[in-house]
Design goal:
Layout lengths: L8 H9 L20 E2 L4 H16 L19 E2 L1
Antiparallel strand pairs: 1-2
Length: 81
């Protein structure tokens, strides 16, 4: 997600359109991106640490974006993140 105070033109466009589409109570719209990964790791903590490192170094721009990581244990021992 864009950090607070960083311009979000896509969010602003959506916010302006919502009232005319019948959603007048929605405001402060922010638009981000979602990245899903399957991570081979020993456990959830290792998967989370690996994904956070990838976000900090490559997947997100920490200067203007915030990110969060959610680890969801998968079937067959996989840990999707």
């Amino acid at each position: 997600m864009p950090k607070e105070g960083i311009a979000d033109p896509q969010g602003q466009t959506i916010e302006r359109a919502l009232p005319s589409l019948g959603f007048p109570a929605m405001h402060e719209v922010r638009v981000g991106k979602r990245i899903e990964l399957v991570v081979d790791a020993a456990d959830s903590a290792a998967a989370e640490a690996s994904v956070k490192a990838a976000c900090t170094r490559f997947l997100a721009n920490p200067v203007i974006e915030d990110f969060s990581v959610q680890v969801v244990p998968g079937a067959g021992g996989e840990v999707p993140a």
